[in-house]
Amino acid sequence: MINETSNTQIIFTQNVSKAFDGVPAVEKLNLDIPPGVIFGFIGPSGCGKTTSVRLLLGIYTADSGKIEVLDRTPKKFGRRERVQIGYMPQQFVLYPELTVWENLNFAASLYGVPLRRKKRLQELLELVELTGQESKKVHNLSGGMQRRLSLAASIVHNPQLLFLDEPTAGIDPVLRRKFWDYFQKLKEEGHTLFITTQYVSEAVHCDYVGLMVNGRLLMVETPDNLRRRALGGDIIHLYTSSFLTEGQFNELRRQPFVLEGKVSRLRNQGVEIVVDEASTILPLLLNWCQEEQIPVESASEYVPVFDDVFVELINQETAAEVERVAEETAVSVESAVVEETAVKEAADG
Q1: Chosen domain end from 173, 196, 223
Q2: What is the torsional sign of CA 274, 275, 278, 283?
Q3: What percent of the chain has pLDDT over 70?
Q4: What DSSP assignment string belongs to 133-196?
Q5: What does the pLDDT look like over 250-270, one tens digit per residue?
Q6: Residues 30, 12: Cα–Cα separation, whole Å
Q7: From the centroid of its chain, how far is CA 183?
Q8: CA distance 187 to 36
Q9: Rg of the chain over CA atoms, in angstroms?
Q10: What is the pLDDT of residues 78-112, one digit of tens each?
Q11: FRET partner for 70 with CA separation of 20 to 30 A, picked from 7, 43, 86, 311?
Q12: Nearest to 194 by CA among 56, 19, 65, 338
């Protein structure tokens, strides 16, 4: 959940589950997404992101739970709701025998974009860098160019709510950044974007990030809070002129500004320190070094890439799952022993 006290949400789900042939694809999905934000849905391939999007669009029907999008159940969407929604699926769904211009123009007509739309179509083709390709048939485009055309078609009608399923897959880094700049512009104009991605690094562009693994939404956090949850706090890297002695190292671990004594050694006379808030703790750390007569070469907050954050969160969830299974097994064994003892006592009696 993002805002449990909010009375306005553009997407709301409660305990939504979906299975195919008895195999769970999405389990107890709970979301509460306010308007005017970029929500990033991140997770490995096959984790349930696309299924979740299709449930929100009404393409799939949930086995259980409640879904509301634009204050309406997706299966009851009318024309009013559908013209407010844009959807870019993973698979290419436009017409390969039509030209780039014909496909984009056809998508515009479906959504009721006014006939005087040439300027709008030209702007979109420039955005996705397909200017000059207007007369080329789509089946002659590369996969990356087809993805870019799909994006243009999904936003041609300027929708209030935009679902983008892996919009930057197969796109070069420069164009990917251009897309995200445009997504930010849409958000500033009041649009809401629901974006799935396997590029964990793209989390930094989102207001909120949902982390999904094996059909379960593990958490929804801001990008900064995701880092904090993965690492246990903020991280400071301290480099000194010489290695800290064992005495200095242990004394540093005991300092009140260090969270749970979390200090570890790095290469090149460095140490990594976990603190509550790096900007507040850095002056205290430097004062301590001065008092201990420890020459400092550098001290700064360390911000890990989101790939590392994602791996750490997955490792934590895996460890927690192993622990849950172990506890359930122990309870089952204990129950079996108690039952067996009761049976023997009854037989002896």
Answers
A1: 223
A2: negative
A3: 89
A4: -TTSBGGGS-HHHHHHHHHHHHSTT--SEEEEESTTTT--HHHHHHHHHHHHHHHHTT-EEEEE
A5: 999 999 999 999 999 998 899
A6: 7
A7: 15
A8: 6
A9: 26
A10: 888 889 999 999 888 889 999 999 999 999 998 88
A11: 43
A12: 56
Same domain, 167 and 34: yes
Structural domain for 172, as ranges: 11-223
**Number of compact structural domains in the chain:** 3
CA distance 122 to 129: 10
Burial class (CB in 10 A: 0-12, 13-18, 19+), 206: buried
Q: What is the dihedral of CA 180, 184, 187, 193, to 10 degrees?
A: 20
Q: Do the beta carbons of residue 239 and residue 268 sit within 8 Å?
A: yes
Residues in the chain, overall count: 349
pTM (predicted TM-score): 0.79
Both 277 and 325 in one domain: the answer is no
**19, 111: one domain:** yes
- Per the listing, tokens 């064994």 go with 333
Contact 70, 239 (CB under 8 A): no
